[in-house]
Design brief:
Structural class: mainly alpha
Radius of gyration: 22 Å
Number of domains: 1
CATH superfamily: Glycoside hydrolase 144 (GH144)
Largest sheet: 2 strands, antiparallel
CATH topology: Glycosyltransferase
CATH class: Mainly Alpha
Helix content: 40-55%
């Protein structure tokens, strides 16, 4: 009898310890109550088609070494995945479940399989190659080991993991815990490097100003295994102080925009990627900086600039805007609008995702743009709006780089474009991405350590 009691006690203790060692396990879907409002039908269709891009074009073969890898673009670059696109593909799964586009079981199976693939891939101090094979996960295009693309991956993984809880959450945390953020940071300047090459075994470049990388500071500060502290964020604040200016219209003072922190090239996506996951609406940093308002002003400036230059560019006007990194008549480029330091990255190319992902800031303007984009048959396809278009210049204006290349319509959709559009439309509908992601203890800790406080 004594031995039997002892055995029961040991079993109970074992179960208790097993549960206690799990990283904040959650029950399946249902812990988060998503309340979505009705939205414009074309926006909803674009979100659905963006979801389908990830669900249908990702590697769904459970016998494949690349199960869950998401295409960089479609139909181009066949067989090539982007690690950032994989992050958006993971984030797409809860959206699909909550909208009834897939079942919970289908989504969980895809999420777990994708996370298993990621855990088995080649990594350097936890960081992934930018581009990999859809089928083998091996590096392609001699791509770099990327800090920002790894960050975009892990934000999507953490969001999906937190949503499902249990095994999925544990796997997502394993991926996150494997990243040594300090290895990718200069030990003296406290700036993140831009790139790492395994051939040279050297990092190159530096994130020496504000761009899309805000998530990196939060993820690094909140890390369970390799925390970075707040020095890198403080350095960022110092670096970006030299890029603070208003938008000044050359035609109409009513189009002027109050000063905001801008990026080197003025690309609109830089004010979107981190904001898709981090809810800056409710917080200010220790210096009182309002990142949500900063992004709103940048978006307003981009919109107003489209009006300002509509006399020159056929693609830009009050109903057609969204200049950002995208395909273009001369290849993929980081297009941008003032204020900016770079002056050679504007040719009138418009990226629909940049306008639609701005719907949280400029609702009516984004919806009008969606209907304008939809009026061009060559800009719409199975997976919604394609990457970009450029109608050229109005009569009397000339750009030798566009001769014989316009009108231009990208033949592809791009994974990261569809991803940011899908997430921002969901935040506009329900705030669901923010709700789940901001509930992650490591993210809360990272925000607190960086000095963010409730308004």
């Amino acid at each position: 009898m004594k031995n039997k009691i002892t055995l029961i006690i040991l079993i109970v203790l074992s179960v208790f310890m097993l549960v206690a060692c799990q990283p904040d396990t959650l029950p399946p879907t249902g812990i988060y109550e998503r309340e979505a409002r009705q939205i414009d039908g074309l926006l909803l269709e674009e979100q659905y088609r963006a979801f389908l891009f990830f669900w249908e074009t990702s590697n769904s073969d459970p016998e494949s070494s690349g199960f869950g890898m998401a295409r960089d673009r479609y139909p181009g670059a066949s067989g090539v995945a982007s690690i950032a696109s994989v992050g958006f593909a993971l984030a797409a799964i809860p959206i699909g479940i909550e909208n009834g586009w897939i079942t919970h079981d289908e989504g969980l199976e895809r999420a777990l399989g994708t996370l298993d693939t990621l855990l088995g891939m080649t990594r350097h101090h936890g960081f992934y190659f930018h581009f990999i094979s859809m089928h083998t996960t091996e590096r392609v295009w001699n791509s770099e080991v990327s800090v920002i693309d790894t960050a975009l991956l892990v934000t999507g993984a953490l969001f999906a993991g937190r949503y499902f809880g249990g095994e999925a959450y544990a796997k997502a945390i394993d991926i996150y815990d494997g990243i040594d953020w300090n290895w990718y940071m200069h030990p003296v300047s406290h700036r993140y490097y831009m790139s790492y090459s395994p051939e040279t075994q050297q990092h190159t470049g530096a994130w020496d100003g504000f761009a899309e990388q805000l998530m990196m500071y939060v993820l690094g500060a909140g890390s369970n295994t390799h925390p970075t502290g707040d020095a890198s964020y403080r350095v960022l604040k110092s670096d970006m102080s030299r890029r603070f200016a208003p938008y000044i219209s050359q035609n109409n003072p009513d189009l002027n925009v109050d000063p905001f922190y801008y990026t080197f090239g003025g690309e609109l996506f830089t004010h979107q990627y981190s904001h898709a996951y981090l809810d800056f609406r409710q917080v200010l940093d220790r210096d009182g900086l309002d990142w949500h308002e900063n992004a709103r002003r940048a978006t307003q400036a981009a919109y107003n600039h489209a009006i300002d230059v509509s006399f020159r560019y056929r693609s830009l006007n009050a109903n057609s805007w969204g200049v950002s990194a995208s395909d273009g008549p001369n290849g993929y480029k980081a297009y941008g609008t003032p204020p900016k330091d770079r002056t050679d990255n504007m040719d009138g190319t418009v990226a629909p995702y940049a306008a639609l992902a701005s719907v949280i800031h400029l609702e009516e303007e984004a919806i009008r743009a969606a209907y304008h984009f939809k009026s061009f048959p060559d800009l719409w396809g199975t997976y919604g709006f394609k990457a970009a278009y450029n109608l050229g210049l109005h009569e009397g204006h000339h750009d030798p780089l566009l001769v014989g290349k316009v009108p231009y319509y990208s033949p592809d959709v791009i994974g990261i474009d569809k991803g940011i559009t899908m997430l921002m439309i969901e935040n506009y509908r329900s705030g669901f991405i923010w709700q789940v992601f901001m509930d992650i203890p490591e993210i809360q800790r990272g925000m607190e350590l960086l000095g963010f406080q409730p308004r």
